[in-house]
Amino acid sequence: MSTLAKETPVEDANNQSFWMPGNYQSTVRRTEECFQACNFVVACFQERARVEKQYAQQLSEWSNKWKPLVDSSPLYGSLLRAWQCFLSSADRLSALHSSICRSLVSEDGDRVKTWQKETFHKKMFGGFRESHDFDIGFARAQKPWAKKLKKLEKARGAYHKACRKAQVAQDREAHASGNPDYAIEKQKKIQEEREQAAQEKDKVRGRYEKVLEEVTRYAPRYMEEMESIFDQSQEEERKRISFLKQVFLSIHRHLDVTNNESVKAVYSELHHTLMSINEQDDLRWWKNHQGPGMPTDWPCFQEWIPPEKKTKGKKETEKKNMLERTVMMGGVRVRALYEYMGQETDELSFKAGEEFLKIEEEDDQGWCRGMKDGGQEGLYPANYVEVL
Question: Residues 226, 142: contact at Cβ < 8 Å?
């Protein structure tokens, strides 16, 4: 959660050191900064979820806009099926990106929010209990050390002051020595002042060294107590880093469509459909349905045959109905691989996984006739189902 410090002069580095009084605050603030970072993570990927949702909507709108135009286009046969496959692929990709949106919000986002509630415990008057406990721990460990540093600073200041005073006395004596302007008594007095300043300097130096020795002896204990609290905060930070790593990996898994089997299936089927475009088959279909291959009744002489008046009996009618019902109940049981919404009145709509009967084989355009359990009949794309 923390950033690498920039290079600073040695004196500034000492002042900014973790061991100096109050400089543990950045470690304490790390808890609150992590909580805020989690809020940013949630907000960031909620926005990405909206991008996924908008893309899914655009794919669906594009597909719905072009479906009727493609279906009524002049293309036919395998070329028409290839064009239609682009649209059906868009529908499936739209569903995939909608699921990515839901995963980012309801799975990853909610996971972070739940973890925040369990990990960060807010205090009544602001802040978090965890950061407050670390703050108290560091403050207690540093209080005796801060007092000793203050005492040492005072002793150092007194020693440096005595040094300056001794230096001034020494310079004054050097200036007066051999100077005829100074009387012997004056020079003697200056010499005595220099000696007193030197003695005072040595005396103050002794006190300074004594305080420094006391601080030096206490340093290991101070370091041990501070490192103990710091190690606790490091362990909490390790848990936070580990958790967010798992969250980022989960987000990556949801966004990485390159390894998604559904995406592979969409583009594999699309490629297969494109490779199935066959000009000879399409030309043959056109010849048989719109050209000279179409059957026709050539003109011929037809005798007039009077219609037969025949009344059907009740048993004969029931027998015919039973026969028609048997034909309708026959066929092959199939299961839908994908959802299909019929675009025409004679087409059959179904959802992925739904089972029904195939009652007519695939025609030259790749359509079959099916019948649901409720008796509803219609045409559907043959490659949208599998035989059970």
Answer: yes
Q: What is the pLDDT of residues 221-243, one digit of tens each?
A: 999 999 999 999 999 999 999 99
Q: Which amino acid is at 72?
A: S
At 41, the amino acid letter reads V
The string of pLDDT tens digits covering residues 323-382 is: 444 344 467 899 998 888 888 888 999 988 899 999 888 888 888 999 888 888 999 988
For residue 295, the Cα-to-chain-centroid distance in whole angstroms is 62
- Confirm whether pTM is higher than 0.70: no
> Does an H or E element contain 360, and which?
strand 355-360
Phi-psi region of 127 (alpha: psi -120 to 50; beta: other; left: phi over 0): left
Can you spell out the DSSP letters for 97-131? HHHHHHIIIIIIIHHHHHHHHHH--B-TTSSBHHH
β-bridge partners, 347: 379
For the chain, first and last CA: distance in Å? Answer: 55
Contact 89, 59 (CB under 8 A): no
Q: Is 371 helix (H, G, I), strand (E, B) or coil?
A: strand
Confidence of residue 10 (pLDDT cuts 50, 70, 90): very low
Q: Which residues contact 119 (CB under 8 A, 6 or more apart)?
A: 239, 240, 243
Q: Give the 3-state DSSP-derived string for 148-176, with helices as H, strands as E and coil as C.
A: HHHHHHHHHHHHHHHHHHHHHHHHHHHHH
